[in-house]
Amino acid sequence: MKNPGPIEVPVAIPGSACRVLVGRGLLARAGELVREAGLRGTCALITDENVARHHGETARQSLEAAGYRVELLVVPAGEESKSMRVTEDLCDRMIEAGLDRSSFIVALGGGVVGDLAGFVAAIYQRGIPFVQIPTTIVAQVDSSIGGKTGVNARAGKNLIGAFHQPRLVLADTDTLNTLPDREYREGFAEVIKHAAIRDAAMLEELDPSTARETLAPLIARNIAIKADIVAEDEREQTGTRALLNFGHTVAHAIENVAGYGQFLHGEAVSLGMAAALEISQRKAGLFAADAQRVRATLAAFGLPLTLPSTLTTGALMAAAQRDKKFTEGQIRYVVVPRLGEAFVAEDVTEHDLRTAIDSLRA
Question: Are the CB atoms for 246 and 336 separated by under 8 Å?
Fold first, then answer.
């Protein structure tokens, strides 16, 4: 079948021009598209061991064919690479390779690589441009869009970071073909989240048996949702961008308590959304049938809805209270009063959160 060509998704973030393309074959065109974006100088191509094996040479050759000198920097795969230790090591390697303020970074990988490489770009030489080439569904529909970069602290996920917008995002759907099934399925947690907070009709269209056939338009649709929200509130000052945190308070606590890597991000988000749906029913009037629709869609993609007994409510509550979504000790919790709408509730209590976590054990 003929490649229909990429879909360009408008991203209207004030003062931060960013071109976003979705489609097949974009990785092989990365050099030409980076050149069109106006980037010059030496390129640090940051990726992890797994992605380097599948896609590293294609990316490197494309960039070199466009006339760039490329320094390939490979980090260990997994959440543990989102650390200040790895950040410092990458900066040292870039200094040693002679990269300066005229250089730029290409982040080739999933959310871990994108967050890490974006953070390095934000702080290296006080900030250099970077390009996102996300290779997982989570990264393509969520983490590569919006300019949040960062690493984890011992106390919690993404507690150290910066806002730094990419100049170009290339979501090549061909790269998703190399994902293990578990990593492919976990990405749909963020898609289902977008449906719950902004696009209820999308829930009706999500079917694991046919999703691969419509990946490019589905990913573009989700990027548009995220981009619209970010454009309204890039730095989380009005509360609109906080809506993207639906399910993430408990999700980040689960990732922290279980140990990074035990749950994939989308798996933790699935559990976090199940808790958020419980709270939305009791505090925001969400119909039980609508909550069940979301849970059923998560289950259809093989995402978890039951919390392991090894993760105690007390430990999860302690981790949640260190999360960025607690402001001056108060919970700012995203709830859904009806599918396709969301708001930040100020009346969710610790008791509500405990009860919702406990409900995940049933």
Answer: yes
Are 136 and 267 contained in the same domain? no
Here the tokens at position 78 are 């997994």
Give the domain range for residue 303: 182-359
DSSP string, 183-235: HHHHTHHHHHHHHHHH-THHHHH--TTTGGGGHHHHHHHHHHHHHHHHHH-TT
In tens, the pLDDT along 239-255 reads 899 999 999 999 999 99
71-111 residue pLDDT tens? 999 999 999 999 999 999 999 999 999 999 999 999 999 99
User: What percentage of residues in the chain have a pLDDT greater than 70?
Assistant: 97
Domain boundary residue, one of 148, 179, 210? 179
The tokens describing 59, both together, are: 């990316």
Instruction: Look at residues 179, 209, 231 and tell me which one is the last residue of a structural domain.
Output: 179
168 DSSP β-pair partners: 19, 131
Q: Which residues are catalytic?
A: 126, 148, 190, 226, 236, 241, 245, 248, 252, 265
> Which pLDDT band holds residue 313 (cuts at 50, 70, 90)?
very high
Q: Is the CB of residue 305 less than 8 Å from the CB of residue 271? A: yes
C-alpha span between 196 and 334 (Å, rounded): 11
Please check whether residue 45 is in contact with residue 106, taking contact to mean a CB–CB distance below 8 angstroms.
yes
Determine the straight-line distance between the first and last CA of the chain, rounded to whole angstroms.
47
Cα–Cα distance between 361 and 241 in angstroms, integer?
Answer: 30
344 near 239, Cβ under 8 Å?
yes
Is 1 a domain residue? no
The span from the CA of 161 to the CA of 176, in Å, is: 27
- Judge contact between 65 and 35, C-beta under 8 A: no
**Residue 4 identity:** P
Q: Indicate whether 141 and 187 sit together in one domain.
A: no
Verdict on whether the full-model pTM lies above 0.85: yes
In sequence order, what are the beta bridge partners of 74? Answer: 47
Distance CA 136, CA 146 (A): 16
Among the listed residues 244, 207, 202, the one whose alpha carbon sits nearest the alpha carbon of residue 220: 202
